[in-house]
Structures are given as C-alpha cells and as structure tokens.
C-alpha cells in the first residue's frame, strides 16, 4: 500500500464469513467497528466472555450485523439488553441469554422481529406472569426457561402471547412449585389449534398439573418425571388420563414419576396407580396428610379423544 495515499482512499473488502466464534476469550468489550467488514455474518458466539454490560460501543458494534440470525451471549455476566439493540437485527432467529444475571425477561425483546428460539436458562427469575413476554414474541417456537434456582411460580397468562410456541423447556427448577392452570390462557382460542407439541416439565418442584392448564392430548412429548407430586384427588385425572397417554407415547418420561405426599404414599409410582383397577385418591389438605376414611374421594370422568365427547358419569365415594 502506498503510504502517500490519503486515509479516505484505503478500502476494506467484505469478508465472506458467516459463522464467527469469539467464545471464552476474556473479552470485556469490542471496538465499535469490529464487525464493519462482516456483512455476511449469520452466527456470532460471544459466550463465556465477561462483557457485563452491552451499552455504548458494544451495542453499536452488534447493531451493524444486519444479517445476523444467531446471537449467543450466554454466560457473559449481563443483566440487561440496552434499548434499541435488537431493532436493527431484523433476521435474528435465535437468541441465547443463558447463565446470566437477568431477574426478568429483558424489555428489549419487545423490539425483536422474528425470534424463533429464546434460551433463558440459568437466570434469576422469581416468577413469570402475563407481562413477562411481549407481543413481539408471537413468532417464538422454542422457549427454554430451565435451571433457574429462584423461579418459584408461573402465573396466569404467562405464555398466552406465545401463540406459535412448539417446544417448552421448563425443567430443573427445583423451587418451581406452582404452574397456574391458566398459564397458557390466550395462546389459542381453539383447543384443536393447540400449538405446543413438546413440554419438558421434569425435575421441578411441582405438586400437581391441572387438567385445564393445557390441551394435553395434542402434546406429543411430555416429560413430568422427578416432581414431588401430592397424590390426592387433585391428580386423579393424571392417574386416569395423563399418565397412560404419556406412557403410550414415551414411557421413559414417566418412569420416575412418583408421589412425594402424603407420607403413606411416598415413592409410589404414578404408573402403578394408573394400572390399578379403580384407583381412588383421597383429598388432602396442604400439609399432605390424608383425610379420614369417611372423607370424599373424587372420581374424574373418563377421557375421550377430541370431538368424541366426554363421559358424563362421575362417582363420589365415601
């Protein structure tokens, strides 16, 4: 290069790079022009770097990646996404924010356009509610919210805006004891159009799954193992309907589905209960102790496939 050329005459040609990994390099920040000559970049892995904050120069650098489809910011010690950072990333399909310090779903996700996959594993959420996920995530097909040590509850409407969700990974959240029976309210008005095909709810702290929570018959893969189920009349429907359905589709997903309460049923297999003829589960108070032998025991209607109707018979024993 002729040293007498003016600075403006120096040209850089775009590099034909589509995939770039800068993971685990002790990077704290990057130059705002770092990606200027990577117009074809589709996948960027920045995971494992101590970025801590994305404001300023880092935000400017990422905003120039107009063709980016996959962005991995896992384990980068960030707790927020700066406003406007996702606005220019029109083709972004996969965003990985796992193992960071988020206490809630980042507000900046409302500026996303076509996200299909969102990985939020290992963050510090305490609860999810109807305001957690923005309308812009109605394109989302996979959501991962696992390995969250502080997640305790999923409230009504939490997933209602995720109308195209196909896969829900929500497992190994040991403090997650309650998923509202209305958690999916709004996801579809027609149960026949239920979108979710795979749900992984294993290894949580769940005591009961409500029959009204989901259109379970349309879920092809459902893992509910290793939850501390309270085996009373509230899970009668699970014993009669859900467990046989899971076992027929993927029997290994119920091998370790057992009772934690009441004490006299601790360790009892839900599969065993489902195969016993005329299994009746007693109603119990919150503490987990069975009620007396004269207390009511609920028998739920027999499940029938969609459009086949439901049995109208139910018995109430004493």
From TrEMBL:
Matching InterPro entries: Cys-rich_flank_reg_C, Leu-rich_rpt_typical-subtyp, LRR_R13L4/SHOC2-like, LRR_TM_domain-containing
A single cellular component GO annotation: plasma membrane
Residues annotated as domain LRRCT: 227-284
Keyword Metal-binding applies: no
Record key words, sorted: Leucine-rich repeat, Repeat, Signal
Name of the molecule in the record: LRRCT domain-containing protein
Organism listed in the record: Allacma fusca
